[in-house]
What we know:
Shape: extended
Oligomer: single chain
Strand content: 25-35%
Amino acid sequence: MKKRTKVTLIVLLALAVGMLGIMIFIDRQLKPTLDTNNDGKPDEWYQFDIYGRLVSISKDRNKDGTVDHIERFKKGKLKKIRVDMDKNGVFEVMAVFNDDEIMFQFYRDINQDGIYERLIHYDPATRLPVSWEQDTNGDGKFDTSGKRGEKWEIPEDQVPAELLSSHENP
């Protein structure tokens, strides 16, 4: 291959890599916002990937300047929602969704230390809870569990309606 052809190929490769870098930079920086209550401050932030697919939505639901609701997406599909239920800065609940955007796991931080102590598993077909796990001694590991029809002692942990405000509640 001629020296001039090699130089041309190297320059073209460098330009292509540079353009990719710019696209990635733009992807990481581009976060359109919404001001839902017209007070001049953003209340919702949207992030998209280089293909234009939604990556995340962050919301300040009570308009106090702090994000208290986060939705994460993978390839444009909902994967996870985290919510600070009492607006104290700790995300007490998290819902995890399958590829059909149906919730199949629900986590709860009972003592508000930032670590989820309870996990409820849902059947995606029926959308009903089928089993649960809990960390009862605070070591960060689930150490007790139960299944529907046996040891089902957690009725207070139904999914809060506001968690799935824009999605179907199980």
